[in-house]
Every structure is written in C-alpha cells, then in structure tokens.
Write a structure and sequence with these properties.
This protein has about 70 residues and is of the alpha+beta class. Helices cover about 20% and strands about 30% of the residues. It has a single domain (about 5-65), classed as OB fold (Dihydrolipoamide Acetyltransferase, E2P) (Beta Barrel), CATH 2.40.50. It has 1 helix and 5 strands. The relative contact order is 0.26. Bound molecules: zinc ion.
C-alpha cells in the first residue's frame, strides 16, 4: 500500500492531508476555476483540488493507509 495519494496530477503523501472536502466547491465567484471540484487541504495550509473520482479515490486510500493495510 502506497502512502502517496494522487490528486490533480500530484502525488501527495497521505500524512500531509489535513482534510478532504465532502462537498464540491461553490463560491459563486464568476472567475472561480474551482467550481465543482473537491478541496484537499494539506497540513501546511495549501490545497490541492480534484474531481469527484479523485476525491473518492483519495478518501479510500487515506482510510486504507490509516488502517495500516
Ligand atoms: Zn470559488
């Protein structure tokens, strides 16, 4: 089991993930490029963004990683 999780073409170490958004981003801003994407917040305050598929895969990987499988 790899502890690296791929989101938006980036391999993020599982232990660096602070939280994963449950709902797609919506802020109403006309020039927002993240509309409908899921935010994955990292421990340093940075965020990466993925589609629903990536987010689901990330959640799954994170759970597996936490269980130490
Ligand atoms: Zn936005």
């Amino acid at each position: 089991m790899s502890a690296l999780i791929k989101i938006d073409d980036k391999h993020v170490p599982a232990w660096r993930i602070a939280w994963i958004s449950d709902l797609p981003h919506f802020c109403g801003s006309a020039d927002c490029t993240r509309e409908g994407q899921y935010e994955v917040r990292l421990d340093n305050g940075e965020s990466v963004w993925g589609n629903q598929e990536e987010r689901n895969a990330a959640l799954e990987s994170l759970e597996t990683w936490q269980e130490g499988k």
